[in-house]
Amino acid sequence: MLSVRGLTKRYGERTALKSLTLTLRPGEFTALLGPNGAGKSTLFQVLTGLFAADEGEVEVAGHSLRHDAPAALRNIGVVFQQISLDLDLSVRRNLLFHADLHGLPRALANERIATDGARFGLGAELDRKVRELSGGNRRKVELVRAGLHRPAVLLMDEATVGLDPKSRHDLLAALREDVRTRGVCVLWATHWVEEAAPADRVLVLHQGELLADGTPAAVTAALGEPTLEQGFIARTSGSADAAAPRERR
Ligand code: ADP
């Protein structure tokens, strides 16, 4: 569904991704676990076409990002760390705007907004301004938006930042249900081990390279400590990047 081969991205002297190679399969919830500065956001920026990689290839649902970017990007849905909804428009208007960008016929867009909104418990919120919604519900709107054009791959960059524990739990549960019923694949970037532990698969990213890849149990064994958290801390400690530009929890 998503294939990344030999991806390298440099910012001047600094190499943020070092010949990264990974493949994601449909119906799989994969956590991309890495400390601040590991390269998670850089990877997402390359996968969403915001930055070009210096080297390497990306294919999304069989479409090359280099040779057919529109087809590749049509198969990607994304929730970025920073909220990116228009607060003064209604939920429905925000979603219709996205549907228009993707060229969805209006009737189909309305149908999906109704069904997906209901699935995420937003049925009663559709005609309210986003500004009036709780943080958890705003995130759910972004999740609905990310899936409206039915992408094969959903990218979630620290998507629970700023949410309380119940909203985080609800959001993750809603997303897992989506993976199960629709067979999309999710790449969930986080620096929180507790968000990675229930994933089908965990990729540990450290200084732009994969340290481990497998089920949570296999990754725990590969990191060589009794728990995933202990292994993650032992293998990535001292790497927190003081120069990382964005605010984290
Ligand atoms: P993460 O999302 O895992 O915290 P990032 O992808 O933000 O990691 O950062 C990876 C590395 O690239 C870090 O060393 C970071 O400081 C650096 N970096 C990220 N964005 C830029 C930028 N726009 N210019 C220069 N260096 C950057």
**CATH architecture type of the largest domain:** 3-Layer(aba) Sandwich
Structural class, by secondary structure, is alpha/beta
Quaternary organization: single chain
Strands in their spatial order, largest beta sheet: 6-7-8-3-9-10
Please give the largest β-sheet.
Answer: 6 strands, mixed
Distance between the termini: 31 Å
Number of contiguous helices: 9
How many strands in all?
Answer: 10
Order of helices and strands: EEEHEEHEHHHEHEHEEHH
Tally of distinct domains: 2
- Helical coverage, percent range: 25-40%
The CATH topology of the largest domain: Rossmann fold
The CATH superfamily label of the largest domain reads P-loop containing nucleotide triphosphate hydrolases
Description:
- The chain is built from 9 helices and 10 strands.
- Strand 7, helix 6 (165-182) and strand 8 (185-190) form a beta-alpha-beta unit.
- It has helices spanning 40-47, 69-74, 91-101, 106-119, 135-147, 165-182, 193-196, 216-223, 228-236; strands at residues 2-11, 14-24, 29-33, 55-60, 63-64, 76-79, 153-157, 185-190, 201-206, 209-214.
- With 249 residues, the chain is an alpha/beta fold.
- Residues 239-249 have low confidence and may be disordered.
- The strands form 2 sheets. Strands 6-7-8-3-9-10 form a 6-stranded mixed β-sheet, with helices on both faces. Strands 2-1-4-5 form a 4-stranded antiparallel β-sheet.
- The chain has 2 domains: 2-75 and 151-248, Rossmann fold, CATH 3.40.50.300; 87-149.
- Bound molecules: adenosine-5'-diphosphate.
- Adenosine-5'-diphosphate (ADP) binds at residues 11, 14, 16, 34, 36-42, 241, 243-245.
